[in-house]
Amino acid sequence: MMQTAVLVLNRSYFPVHVTSVKRAFCLMYRGIAKAVDSQYRTFDFQSWAELSAAVHDDTVGLVDKIIVVPRVILLTAYDRLPKREIRFSRLNILIRDNYTCQYCGKKLARGHLNLDHVVPRSHGGRTTWENVVTSCHKCNCFKGGRTPHEAGMRMIKPPYRPSAFPFSLALSRPNIHAAWKPYLNIVDFSYWNAELEP
Description:
- The chain is an alpha+beta fold.
- It contains six helices and nine strands, in the order ββαββαβββαββααα.
- Among the domains are: 5-75, no CATH class; 90-151, DNA Binding (I), subunit A.
- It has helices at residues 21-29, 45-49, 90-96, 137-143, 148-151, 167-170, and strands at residues 5-9, 15-20, 33-36, 42-43, 59-61, 66-68, 72-75, 113-117, 132-136.
- A hairpin with a 4-residue loop joins strand 5 and strand 6.
């Protein structure tokens, strides 16, 4: 439970990060952040700890009490905005391709997908938005070090550099909590992920 995800908002209630429950509690305890409930009320660590844990599903046990897990926290001093460019990351490629193998069309869980270079690196293909697609393990193994044409495979759609992610695809991520949804209609999810090296 301590490693599950918590949405972090800046002082203007704009999403800027996702962190773990453990880190969220640390930020709250140090006074750097406050918990936000479903009615948009904010709580410091002490007042949050006094909430009744009996009516909540997500709780953690402390030495002397049970405390509710916050799903959204608000930074008390940070007012900057995240970068608007979309980072080239594994997760963002999966989101762009809607968790769907671009060769067979199967929509699968993240653990059953990997990334494929359309033009293999052995043929001079680069690791870019325009040359990397989501692929299931079976299709990736079948394709091997060949181009789709050489392997007799057709792609559902060619890879592209996205300018923004549609809201519906962003919400298809497996770890989106209901408490996050009011804050996500304007967010670019890319800043949450490490950028891939070309």
